[in-house]
Amino acid sequence: MANQGPAYYSPYPTATYEGNITPPEGKALLLEDVVDEEVAMRECARVMLTSENATIFPGPQVLYGWNEEAKKKATLIKEIAEVLEAKMIPMYDYRPKYPKIDPEVEINPNHPNLTIWHNNIKAAIFVGVHCHYANVALKIVRSETDCYTIAICGLSGHEDAMATLRDQHTEELARFIEIAKEVKAELGK
Amino acid sequence: MALDIYKVNPEFRDIMPKEIIDLEENATWAQNQEKPRGIKELPETKELLEEHSLCAGCPEAATLRYVLSALPKPEETVIVNSTGCTSLMFPHIALHTVHSLFGNQNAVASGIKRVLEWRFPDKQKDVVVLAGDGATVDIGLDYTLQSFFRQEKITTICFDNEVYANTGGQESGMTAKGQVFKMAPTGKKFDKVPMWELAKTSGCHYSVNMTGSAPKAVAKAVREAILVAREIGPTYLNIYTPCILEIGLSANEGLGEMKAGDKHRFEFYKHVSPEAEEYLKKCKKEGIL
Amino acid sequence: MSKITDMTKTHNWSGQKLVSIEHMLFEAPRTKHFMTGSEVLKEAVKRATVDASVSYPITPQSEAAHLIGELWAEGYVGVYFRGENEFGVMSEVAGCSMAGARTVTTTSGPGTLRAMENFAMWSGTRAPMQLCLMARGINSPLSIQPDNLEVQYLLETGCMIWYAENVQELFDMSLAAFTVAEQPDVHVPIITAVDGFFVSHTREAVELPDDDIALQPYNPYAAPLPPIDSEMPPGRFLRDPFVMKSNYISYATHASWQWEIRSAVERSKPYARKLLNGLVHTSGNLDAEIAFVACGTASNQAKEGQRELEKLGIKSKVIKLRTIRPFPEEELIKELDGIKHVFVPEFNVVGWLANEVKAKLYGKVDVNIHAGPKVAGGMSLPAEAIIQEVMEVVNPGKGA
Asked: Do A58 and B12 count as a contact with CB atoms less than 8 A apart?
C-alpha cells in the first residue's frame, strides 16, 4: 500500500528536519538536491509523461480570474495538461468537508491522500495552491502515498514535494510547456 | 473587484463542481442586485451556506441562513466566529471568515475592521461577529463590551441558545434562572444576563432582542444593524435560537419553541439611538434598506 | 492621520523613501544617538512602514508602546489604539495581521502570560506579526525587574524567538524581524526579546540611519494564506477551521499542520543568517577550552566575565545566541569544537537556556555543560559570580 511515515500514523516526516529547505532564488529542488530550473523542469515533465494517471491539481490562485495573471496562468496550465496528457482535478477551496470529499472529482488539503488513492495517481503537479495548504497536503501525500509530487510555486517553493520550482510566473510556465514538448518528443510520444 | 474571486476561469469550468459554478452564477451578490437582498430569493438562488453538520431542525442553522441572505453586501463582508456549534457551519460559508479562540471574537473583529478601513479607505467592507451566548456573554464579555465602549464599527450577532450546547449542555450566563443544566444540577442561581440592555448602556447604537421564528424579521434586523454599524457605531442582535437537543425537543419543534419565546421571555426589544434612527431613515430613502 | 493612498511606488504614506532591508541595515549612512531601548524601538517602527499596532500598559514596555502611539499621531503608523488587556490586545493584533497589516506590539511578564492562548494561534494561522518582548519577572512574587523566565513559556508556541543583547541590536533586529517574518516560506510570528530595564530603560550610544527612509510595505498577497479582506480567492475561506470533526481528516491534517509551523521556523535560518550577520556571534579567546553560551544581557555580562578571566590567565570565549527559535544548532556545534566546558549564565532560576543547549546538543558534542550562574528577580549578573562559577569547575576548592 502506501509508504508510511516513520511513526506509521503520525507525525509526518518533514523535509526541513532532514536538512532540506526551499531552494534559493534562481534554482529548483529535485528530491534533496538543489538544481538548475531547467533540469528540474525536464525531470518533472518526464515523470508526468511516464507515470500512471498523472494529474494536475490547480488551486484557487489559478482557478478563479481574480487578476490578469491568474487568467493567463489558467490558459497556460490547460496547455500543460494537454501536453503532458494529464487529468485535472481542482482544489477549489481549503475547507474541511465532513465527513469526506468526493475523491473522484476534487482534492482537498485536509485529506489529499483520498483523491490520490482513489484515482491511483502516481505523479501529480500542485499549482496555484496557497503555500500553507500546499505544504500541509504535501506532507500528508509524502507520508501516506507513493505519488511523486511536483509543486509549481509562484513564491518560494515547497521542500516537501519531490520536485519544486519557485517564482513561477507566466513566463516560466510557458517555458515549462516548451521543455515538456521536447521531453515528450524525446520519449517518442 | 471582490466578486472576481468567485469567477471561475473558462479553462477550468468543465472540471469544477456544480456548486462552485452556481456560486458564481446563481448566488445573490449585492453587485448584481437592484434591490436589497433578502429572504424572498432564498428558494430560487444559490445560498452562501453550502451544507452543515448540525442537528436536523437546529434553529441556529436556519437562522444563519436568514442572516447570510440578508447581508447587504456579502462579497465585501467578513464574519468573525467563535467556538461553538456555529463553528461547524463556518467552513462552509462562501465568504472570508475567521474562527479564532473562544471569547476573543470581538477583539479579532476590531483589529480586522480597523485594518480594512486603513487598507481600503474607498471601499465599504462590513465586519460582522457571529457567536453563541457563551462566547459573547461569559468568556468574551470583556472583549464584547470593550468593543462597544471603543465604538468599533462592527455588528455583533449572538445566537442565544441559553446554554453551552457544543460541549454537552452546560449552564451559561444567558441561561434562565432556575433552569437545570450540567454544572447547575440544582438549577441556575442567578438571572439571565440582559445582554441587549448591557449593549445599549455600553454604547451600541442599535440593540435588539428577538427570536429566530420569523425569517423576514431576522433579515430586517440584520440589514439595519449592519447599515448602522457602517456609519454610526457598534450594533447588537440577540437572537434566541434554542438548542432543541438540550431542552429535549425534536427536530420539528424548534420553531414552536421560538414562537412561544416571542410571546414571553423574548418579547421583541429594540433600542435605536437618535443618530442611528436618522441614518436608517436616510437609507430607506436611498433604497438600500 | 495618514492615508494609505498617499503611498506611491517610491515613498510611503509619511513621505519616507522606500528602501530595501539590505540598504537600511548595511548601506545607509548612520549617525550617532544616545537613547534607551524603548526609544530605539520607536525609531525602528518609524522606519518600518508599519500598518498597525495595539498597546496596553505594563512595566517595563509601556513606554515603548506609548511611543509607537506617538508615531501614529505623527502619521507613521496607520492604525493604533489601546486594548483592554493583553489577551484582548494579542487577539486584536491577530485580527490586524490577518486582515493584511504589518503589525507590531509589545508586552512583558504577567502580560505575556495573560495573552498566552494567542501565541500558538498566531503561529498556527501563519500571521507574521512582531512582538517585542521586554522580559520581566512573573508572579508570584511580583517583580517588575528583569528576569526572563517568561521566554521558557514561549518556546513551543511555534513563534520565532530572537534575543537582542543591547539597544543597538534591538534596533537592527526589529527591522530584520519584519522582513524575515514576512518571507512567504516563513510567515510566522516573530518575538524579539530583550531584558526589561537593562535594555528598555538603559541609555546607550547607538548608530541609526536617517528617518527619511523606510522599509518596503508588507504584501499580504505574497503570503502562504490569503488575507481576510475578500480580495483574494478562494471566496470561501475560513481561518482557521475545526479539523477534527472527521476521522478522514483529523490526525493527518493536525500533525501535518503543526509540523508545517515548525518547518516554517526552520526555513527562516538562511534569511536570519544574512540579515543578522549570523545566528550566533562569538567573541573572546577563540582557542579557549571554556565557552559561555548566552543570550541577551547575559551575553554582555559573560563578555565582562571573559575579560576578567583573561586577566587571571584563563582563556574563554562567549558564544552569543541571537536566535533561540530557530535554535542555531549547526553554528553552536561548530563553535564548540575544542571546548571542554560550557557555562550558561542566565537571568532566571530554571536555566531554560541551559536545558535547551543540553537537549539540542545531546549525543552531538562531548562537553560538560554547566547551567549557571543563574540569577533572578532583577539581580544583575556580576563578573565575580561568573568567575566563581568557572573557578569552581576548573580549579575546584582553590578560588580565584
From this structure: yes
Q: Kind and range of the H or E element at C135?
A: strand C130-135
- Chain A residues whose beta carbon lies within 8 Å of the beta carbon of residue B17: 90, 92, 102, 105-106
Whether residue C81 and residue B78 make contact (CB cut-off 8 A), yes or no, is: no
* Contact: A92, B20; criterion CB under 8 Å: yes
Domains and CATH numbers, chain C: 4-215 (3.40.50.970), 282-394 (3.40.50.920)
DSSP labels for A116-169?
Answer: HHHHT-SEEEEES--HHHHHHHHHHHHHH--PEEEEE-SSS--TTSSEEE-S--
What are chain A's partners, defined as 3 or more CB pairs within 8 angstroms?
A: B, C
The CATH number of whichever domain residue A146 belongs to comes to 3.40.50.12640
Evaluate if pTM is beyond 0.90: yes
Return per-residue pLDDT of chain B as tens, 289 residues.
689 999 999 999 999 999 999 999 999 999 888 889 999 989 999 999 999 999 999 999 999 999 999 999 999 999 999 999 999 999 999 999 999 999 999 999 999 999 999 999 999 999 999 999 999 999 999 999 999 999 999 999 999 999 999 999 999 999 999 999 999 999 999 999 999 999 999 999 999 999 999 999 999 999 999 999 999 999 999 999 999 999 999 999 999 999 999 999 999 999 999 999 999 999 999 999 8
What is the tally of structural domains in chain B? 1
Looking at the DSSP assignment, which residues form a beta bridge with residue A27?
A36
Cell representation of residue B10? 473558462
Beta bridge partners of B156: B129, B236
> Which structural domain, as residue segments, surrounds residue B245?
35-286
Work out whether strand C237-239 and strand C204-209 pair parallel, antiparallel, or are unpaired: unpaired
Which residues in chain A have their CB less than 8 angstroms from residue C248's CB? 99-100, 111, 114
CATH number for the domain that contains residue B233: 3.40.50.970
Residue span of the structural domain in which A101 resides: 27-186
Round to whole Å and give the CA distance between C107 and C129: 13
Q: Return all residues near C121 (Cβ < 8 A) that are at least 6 apart.
A: B100, B101, C94
Q: How many CB pairs under 8 A join B and C?
A: 154
B107 CB near a chain C CB, below 8 Å? yes
Instruction: Kindly report the nearest CA distance between residue B7 and chain A, in angstroms.
Output: 5
Structural domain includes residue A136: yes
Pairing type for strands C323-325 and C160-163 reads: antiparallel
**CB neighbour list of residue C362: distance below 8 Å, 6 or more residues apart:** none
Domain count, chain A: 1
- Asked if A93's CB is within 8 angstroms of C251's CB, the reply is no
The answer to whether the CB of B63 falls within 8 A of the CB of B86 is no
Q: Which residue has the cell 432582542?
A: B209
Secondary structure, 3-state, chain B: CHHHHHCECHHHHHHCCHHHHHHHHCECCHHHCCCCCCHHHCCCCECCECCCCCCCCCHHHHHHHHHHHHCCCHHHEEEEECCCHHHHCHHHECCEEEECCCCCHHHHHHHHHHHHHHHCCCCCCEEEEEEEHHHHHHCCHHHHHHHHHCCCCCEEEEEECCEECCCCCEECCCCCCCCCEECECCCCCCCCCCHHHHHHHHCCCEEEEEECCCHHHHHHHHHHHHHHHHHCCCEEEEEECCCCCCCCCCHHHHHHHHHHHHHCCCCCEEEECHHHHHHHHHHHHHCCC
